[in-house]
Amino acid sequence: MLQRTMEAVYWIGRYVERVENHARCMEAWCTMHTPTSDRLLVHLVHQLGDGPDRQTMDTLIPYLIWDKNHDNSIVCCVEHARLNIKQSRSRLPDELYEQWNRLYLWLGEGDCAQRFSESPVLFLRMIVRYVSATVGIAHQSMWRDDLWTAWRCGQLIERADHFTRFVSAICYWAFEQRALEPHALYPALTLLGGVDAYRHPMHDGVRIADCIALLVTNSKYPRSVVFALNALEDEMLLWANKKHEPSLHQLHARIVKLRMELALWSGDERAMLHHLVSSIDDIGRALTDVMMTEVLL
Amino acid sequence: MVSKHTFYDEMIGADGTARAQYAAVHGHMKHMAPEVLEKRYEAMNRCMQEQGITYTVYGTVQEHAIPLDIVPRIFDALEWAHIERGVIQRVRALNCFLADIYHEQSIVRDGIIPRSFVVSNRYFRHEMMRVRIPRDVYIACAGIDLVRDEHGTLFVLEDNVRSPSGYSYVFKARAMMQRFFHGWFSGYAVRPLEDSMRAFLAMLQSLSPNQYGSPTIALLTPGVHNAAFFEHTYLAQHMGIHLVEGSDLYSDDHRIMMRTHRGPIPVDVLYRRIDDDFLDPLTFRPDSLLGVPGIMNALRAGNVALVNAPGTGVADDKATYCYVPDMIAYYLNEKPILPNVPTYMLDQPDQREYALAHLEQLVVKERSLSGGYGMLIGPQATEAELAAFRDKIVRAPHLFIAQPTLRLSTSPVYDGGHTVHRHVDLRAFVLTGANTHVIPGGLTRTALRPGSLVVNSSQGGGCKDTWVLTE
Q1: B interface mutation test: which of A89, A100, A291 has the most B CBs within 10 A?
Q2: How far is A133 from chain B (nearest CA, A)?
Q3: Residue of B nearest to A87 (CA)
Q4: Within an 8 Å CB–CB cutoff, is residue B63 touching chain A?
Q5: What is the pLDDT of residues A139-155, one digit of tens each?
Q6: Can you name the CATH fold of B344-404?
Q7: pLDDT tens track for B221-239
């Protein structure tokens, strides 16, 4: 298998996950309806590392969804993923391209701005459905070989990265608001999925600590940061043992170290999130280097 | 424009009834409710778009699904056997011609073809002189374009022997028809296509210089933005070979190595889908980023097989086409099974004079171009276009050939709820390695505009599933 194909599949994993996370977060935001929820979006954009000059919804929503000049907009991520799937199509299941291409064609069918304004939630829900079907196809039909490892690594590091940033944005927003409505965060957690089983302990409202407990430190919820890190650690260990490559062992050790730091963390939550953001970013860069260079040769 | 009644129709005979091999399909079409037909047609074309069975028009980035028509073209076993024999004979002769001109040049010495015609040809590669090619197969993949005139006679219109495309559409058209019009196959014994993909792979394997182990085979593509990238992916996927770009390969000690995640591995056979000019920047165009520096040295050293071999373009030239009947007689001592369309060589003064006087009745083609580019269709041209071509011919007559405007056969094409008749041709694919295989049916290409004779997909043509019936 070509080195280039490994890299392309790693990025497919990242872009597909990014599209889903963006769509879910936007959907969560759309259903919050608190007078200050617009500020959450501003913080999210800042946490994702984008320019501070966008403060109004008129500029933020297009920027996150259909701005073709913004590499992290949903439309651009869909295009990037499609190009990578197309490039490595000869090594991937046919259905995978077909399903992702449906999303690409659907997004291109009309004016995104108009369709979003008609029903933002339906628009974003449809994106999530297309992505879920694609991920389902990958899970059901991809060979469990090095390409699958590349896909999973991309998917998991993106998930860990995105949710750390999302929770950080919530923290900054809550800090800015000083006093949140008890149920202000509930729609956000519901729409991110998997919260139903966790609903009972949150009958009295959702605190920031609950968000962190569910989206960061929970080891059983698949969309949490720790769950993603655990799964990434397993993938890296298997891969490192198979390849006997020192750089893979080093990467595995860094993930273990971060997970242990997180488990033993006793300080401020915002400091923990800050540390997580920078550590996951570093691991992501190292992982990208592994995929891009010929370290596996 | 000539009345449609003067054309040979592939489905409907002169008496107005469907030809024998089309009777059942004709019946199915008549009895299917129009709304059902329309729904399935739309679903089929949507599916083509979703699966990315597309091409891009040169100079644009927009992807278009190739328009696939629902009415199949059907050949009976007898007629197909005739076509098969004809195209195999032609490719054998062309392979002999290439092996000869890059070695002994006996056809030149014996005065059958002028020396200047060969050595001044734009596609003649002196770098290929005396280079040994596995099994002397220069043209492993050929696409021979056939047309039928108003009397029903089949002619060879062009030989595409550089890097013909369209294989994937053959397989996909069949898959789509079987998916959306499965019932139409009942009552027909249609030759399957599955063997052809195996034959394609076997052909590539048989050309490997390494005959001791399992050869490593790769398809060299210009990249994801190439108009035929879908085809490259499809072939690589279905043959289980690697799909590589120039940057995935490098030359080491006269071997071509491929960068894989398990380390570099040598490539034995490279099915290249890039032109000669871009193949090796050390030998051909130095600005090429698509090729592999040193690949020609690896070829000379006998460490890699290139399919098709560099330099086959000289046999693809539209003027070389005129000499193919002579080649068949010279190398094979046979008569051509499939005739050529009469062709005027415009560098010959008498033929040029005639052509210039009758330009409005002729089709003029630029010798080195393909894909429907550089072409004048006299009967459909404006005065200004005729004048411009007349001027071009006078200035450089050796660059052009002319042919009478054939009354190409038509075939029914489904168009927005009703059936219309459009001109068609046939591209027959010949695969030559240790054995020779002709893909049953090949690719029927259709013009989509009324009266148009241009069937190329890059110029808005469509295609049809082509059935060959077993005996």
Answers
A1: A89
A2: 15
A3: B224
A4: no
A5: 999 999 889 999 999 99
A6: Dna Ligase; domain 1 (3.30.1490)
A7: 999 888 889 999 999 999 9
- For B50, the 3-state DSSP assignment is helix
Domain map (residue ranges) of chain B: 4-209+304-337+406-468, 344-404
**Cα–Cα distance for residue pair B322/B419, rounded to 1 Å:** 37
Tell me which residue in B49, B236, B261 faces A90 most closely, judged by beta carbons.
B236
Question: What is the token pair recorded at A99?
Answer: 């399903």
pLDDT at A297 > cutoff 50 = no
Residue whose pair of structure tokens reads 């591995």 in the numeric block: B265
Q: Identify which of A243, A191, A208 has the alpha carbon closest to the alpha carbon of residue A28.
A: A191
CA geometry: angle B240, B204, B105, nearest 5 deg? 155
For A232-256, what is each residue's pLDDT tens digit? Answer: 999 999 988 887 788 889 999 999 9
Instruction: Delimit the domains of chain A by residue range.
Output: 3-296
Residue A232 burial (CB < 10 Å; 0-12/13-18/19+)? buried
Q: What residues contact residue B22 under an 8 Å CB cut-off, 6+ apart?
A: B10, B11, B12, B74
The pLDDT tens digits for A263-279 are 888 878 888 999 999 99
- Mind listing the pLDDT tens digit for each residue in B16-63? 899 999 999 999 988 889 999 999 999 999 999 999 988 776 666 677
In angstroms, the CA B441 to CA B168 distance is 13
Residue to test with chain A: of B171, B261, B271, B273, most A Cβ within 10 A:
B261
Tokens matching residue A4: 């280039």
CB neighbours of A7 closer than 8 A, spacing ≥ 6? A150, A291, A292
Output the furthest CA–CA distance in chain A (Å, rounded). 55
CA distance A70 to A62: 10
The DSSP 8-state label assigned to residue B435 in this structure reads S
Instruction: For residue B430, give the H/E element and its range.
Output: strand B418-432
Distance of CA B283 to the CA centre of its chain: 27
Integer CA distances (angstroms), B27 to A255, B30, B32, B44, in order: 67, 5, 9, 21
| Segment B393-408, tens digit of pLDDT | 998 888 889 999 888 9
Partners of residue B176 in chain A, C-beta under 8 Å: none
For an interface test with B, which of A90, A242, A248 has the most B Cβ atoms less than 10 Å from its Cβ?
Answer: A90
Q: How many beta carbons lie within 10 A of that of residue B399, not counting itself? A: 19
Residue whose structure tokens are 């999925």: A193
Q: B130 exposed, middle or buried (CB, 10 Å; 0-12, 13-18, 19+)?
A: exposed
Assess whether the previous peptide bond of B45 is cis (omega < 30° from 0): no
Q: Are A89 and B49 a contacting pair at CB < 8 A?
A: no
Q: B415: helix, coil or strand? A: strand
Instruction: Spell out the residues 6+ positions from residue B339 whose beta carbon is closer than 8 angstroms to its own.
Output: B153, B155, B156, B325
Angle between helices B194-206 and B167-180 (to 10 degrees): 160
Closest residue of chain A to B244, computed from CA coordinates = A2
Question: Complex ipTM above 0.85?
Answer: no
| Distance separating alpha carbons of residues A166 and A21, to the nearest angstrom | 9
